[in-house]
Amino acid sequence: MKRILAFAAPGPAVLVLDQWLKTAAKGLHQPLIAGVIGLNWTENTGMALGLFQGGTLGILILTAAMAVVCFLLLRGMKLRGLAPIALSLIAGGAVGNLIDRVTLGYVRDMFETLFMKFYIFNIADVGVVLGAILCGVSLLFRPQDWSKEP
To answer: Is 125 a catalytic residue?
Structure first.
C-alpha cells in the first residue's frame, strides 16, 4: 500500500498546484518567458482544444467519470511501473478541473504558448495529458504493469 501511495503522489501534487496557480494567476496577462510562454487568464466553458463550449454538464459528467475510473483502477489493481503514476496524474488533473466546473461553471486556464498559436491551458490539463501519454507508453511497452490481481 505504501508503494501505491508513493506512486499516487503526483495526482494530489497536480491538484494542489493547479488550484493554487488558478487563484494566483487570476486576471493576469503577461509574458513569463519572452516569446515562449505567458499568462493569459481565461474562463473556459468547453474542454480540450476548445471543444464543446458551453457543454458544462456533459463535460462535468465525463470528467467525474474519468476521475472515478482512475481511482477505481488505482485501488483495485496491482499496478507497477508507470501505470499508477499515469492514473494518478489523470485523476489529479480531472479533479482540479472538476472543482472549477462544480464551483464556478467554467475552468480557469492561464498558460499560453507564445511561439505558436495554441490553446490556453492549466496545470490540470498538463496532468491529464502527461498521464495519458504515460498510460499509452505503459500499455504499449509494459503491459505487465497492468495486472488484474488485487
So the answer is: yes
Pairwise CA distance, residues 12 & 112, whole Å: 24
Q: DSSP class of residue 135?
A: H
**pLDDT tens for the chain, residues 1 to 150:** 555 555 568 999 999 999 999 999 999 999 999 999 999 999 988 776 566 666 667 777 888 888 888 888 888 778 888 889 999 999 999 999 999 989 998 999 999 999 998 889 999 999 999 999 999 999 999 888 887 665
Tell me if the pTM is above 0.90.
no
Q: Do the beta carbons of residue 106 and residue 57 sit within 8 Å?
A: no
In the set 18, 100, 109, 145, the catalytic residue is: 109
At residue 77, the 3 state secondary structure works out as: coil
Element spanning 112, H or E: strand 107-113
Is 100 among the catalytic positions?
no
On whether the CB atoms of residues 73 and 87 are closer than 8 A, the answer is yes
Taking each helix axis from N to C end, the angle separating 10-24 and 83-104, rounded to the nearest 10 degrees, works out to 30
The three grid cell numbers given for residue 68, joined into one nine-digit string = 472515478
